[in-house]
Amino acid sequence: RIGQPCLTLTRLRAPQVCDQPHPTLVGTIIRHCSLGHLEEAYEAMKGIWDLGDSSSDSITTFFRVAKNYSMP
Q1: Beta strand ranges found along the chain (DSSP E)
Q2: Which of 9, 36, 41, 70 is most deeply buried (CB count within 10 A of its CB)?
């Protein structure tokens, strides 16, 4: 709307604007899986799903994060 200030796009806000899960959250899910903490991974993944992020964007983010993730 005219006359209203725009929100500042920050690193934390960008995934919300772009309909993508935050890479840090995706990294947490991958870490839980690699440690065998599947219940925690499921809860975090359900959180992403409940936010309504695009499934194709979620898959892309998972691929990008997993590709660069350093496994313990």
Answers
A1: none
A2: 41
